[in-house]
Amino acid sequence: MNHALAWLLYSPLGPLAVLFAVRLVVWSVVERRWPAYTVNHRAVFFTDLGTSLFLFLVTIPIADYLIARVATPPELPSAWTEAPLLLRVGLYLILADFGHYWVHRLMHTRPLWRVHKWHHAPSHMSWLAGNRETLWDRILVSLPYIFLWPVLAGGPWWLGTALLMFAGLKNDWMHLNVRWNLPWLEWAIVTPRYHHVHHSTDPAHYDRNLGALFSVWDRLFGTYARPDAKQNALSFGLDEKVPITRLIAGL
């Protein structure tokens, strides 16, 4: 077996790299077929692709390195690990998403806004545009998932890779530039239309629709805003000029 094939089969980065290539093709086709907002793809594609690769090849590895040296997940009673795996995966997603909601909400407060501002910089919506994260943003968002990982202790070897793939697809889905109207799904799950409101420059939408996977947190904690069914009704981006180096550094 040559080294390239071994890397694809046995390294977690191999499946993730293949998945990224598939996402690049599939989501690009979907966004061109059912666009919610008009986007000049030629003008933004290489910037979005470059920032996405920077996130995956630089920001995430550094964040993972730092987290591994400071984060200590708690030990859980053995009863947790003896529960059915499917139940534990569901519990993990619910609890981690709950933590994600509150971390996200904190990053929209004045003290932490600068570490998250880079994510809101694009003036367009697309799955690639949603891959802007500062190092500090990545670390903070990762903490709930890291500390709750013991819930999945004893799971199969591929579970971690599968959850990383799911996280990437979830982020793609939230930022996808599509005109699909799925109000029945929005009662439980964050949809593109639902999350587009969060990126809106309309002051009425500031700090709204903060959920990442489940929309119930916004309804429970007063940050829900009903998505407008009209297309091309929102504008995106920042209402201030910030040097690009400060945005990327989160300073």
Give the end-to-end Cα distance, rounded to a whole number of Å.
46 Å
What is the strand content?
under 5%
Helix content: 55-70%
Total helical elements: 12
Low-confidence stretches: 1-10
Question: Compute the gyration radius: what is it?
Answer: 18 Å
> Element order, helices and strands?
HHHHHHHHHHHH
Mean pLDDT: 88
How many β strands by DSSP?
0
Topology:
Blueprint: H1 3-10, H2 13-33, H3 41-70, H4 78-82, H5 85-107, H6 113-116, H7 135-147, H8 159-175, H9 183-186, H10 192-198, H11 216-220, H12 244-249
Helix pairs in contact: 1-2, 2-8, 3-7, 5-7
Would you mind describing this structure in some detail?
The protein is built from twelve helices and no strands. The protein has 251 residues and is mainly α. It has helices spanning 3-10, 13-33, 41-70, 78-82, 85-107, 113-116, 135-147, 159-175, 183-186, 192-198, 216-220, 244-249. It is globular.
In short:
The chain is an all-alpha fold and 251 residues long.
Key terms for this structure?
251 residues; mainly alpha; 12 helices; 0% strand; disordered N terminus
